[in-house]
Amino acid sequence: xxxxxxxxxxxxxxxxxxxxxxxxxxxxxxxxxxxxxxxxxxxxxxxxxxxxxxxxxxxxxxxxxxxxxxxxxxxxxxxxxxxxxxxxxxxxxxxxxxxxxxxxxxxxxxxxxxxxxxxxxxxxxxxxxxxxxxxxxxxxxxxxxxxxxxxxxxxxxxxxxxxxxxxxxxxxxxxxxxxxxxxxxxxxxxxxxxxxxxxxxxxxxxxxxxxxxxxxxxxxxxxxxxxxxxxxxxxxxxxxxxxxxxxxxxxxxxxxxxxxxxxxxxxxxxxxxxxxxxxxxxxxxxxxxxxxxxxxxxxxxxxxxxxxxxxxxxxxxxxxxxxxxxxxxxxxxxxxxxxxxxxxxxxxxxxxxxxxxxxxxxxxxxxxxxxxxxxxxxxxxxxxxxxxxxxxxxxxxxxxxxxxxxxxxxxxxxxxxxxxxxxxxxxxxxxxxxxxxxxxxxxxxxxxxxxxxxxxxxxxxxxxxxxxxxxxxxxxxxxxxxxxxxxxxxxxxxxxx
Length: 497
What we know:
Strand 12, helix 18 and strand 13 (453-460) form a beta-alpha-beta unit. By secondary structure, the chain is an alpha/beta fold. The protein is built from 21 helices and 13 strands. The protein folds into two domains: 112-325, 3-Layer(aba) Sandwich (Rossmann fold), CATH 3.40.50.300; 335-496, P-loop containing nucleotide triphosphate hydrolases (Rossmann fold), CATH 3.40.50. It starts with a helix and ends with a helix.
């Protein structure tokens, strides 16, 4: 006879009361009984281990040997999926962030080893004006070194203690990295520092001495010491850094006292003084003797235009400019400026045509007044040059470059963008500049990544008389070590009197 609803409800309530009583009593029972109760609850929910499943689970037709153990397999799969999902999340979140952080650190912040080297140098010199690690020049140099480009310092002075410290510290860090990655024995020094005098060599070596505790040995080679003594010292010590004058280094190389073919970093200090002393050929011979892939740093202590070819012969096509000064002469360093003063417009056009014929650059940038575009375009087409107006058509330039040959870009002098001119190496000014500031802006914005910048200006006597800019432009040319037209020099002198 079937039970009624009241009987079923009483039975269910009784079962619930028993469960509640067991739950309340489990806190008062012993730990052993509590463990048994907990195990029973895990069995009922399917959360049991392998041994518990073997003890308390019965075989089924689908699982006669208790291999799946009911819900255990399902739980395992869920856990496995959760681990996979977690690993995916880690790879998608943590790894890119670590890579981006590492990349940012490499670009923006020097590693700890460089800072430790700078700290050691600071401890050796107690009269420093400011901490070395705060140097803006040093940070920019470190970035330039790791970009793989050559560096030219356009301050117009010899290297300072601050600059030397950053160079040797960066070289120490790069040396340790190379030794860790390359197990091949390299007998050549890592850093070769060329100086014009014994006093400068002593200054550089005094900075390098602070890095001896880092395992870096530096020697100074110059006249005044016995040649045999220096050769024997090089063979016994095998220094990582060599500071030397060019003539003494060539003597030692000739006697096979040192191998410089594997030098990784070449520093040429006071290039103007080296050229004035007649050591340019020796410096170039040393540069050619280095057969390995290396980077060069040139400190040009003179703004004279006569030394620009020397700088060009020692550096690559693409360089980074660094300077401790923001003067016009510093920013315009290694840019050849020529001013063609003509008697008439016809003579000016003739001079402009001659400069076009002598220019070897593929891309010629002409900054002129817009009303002169038609006349200039006709002249350029007569010389079989492709013409681009305002350098604005991005599709035309690659097509012309692919065809080969020279082409010219006409740019409005009233609307030029100085940020876009940093890659311009050859710039012509067929019309006189409207102001002195315009000339300076053009001069200091071209050839930012090169030492082969050329700026040609064309002006008539009448334009100079009307504008009264001859004195200001003459001063800029003189400060930059360029040739000043005689008429401008005389005019500037008369105005100063």
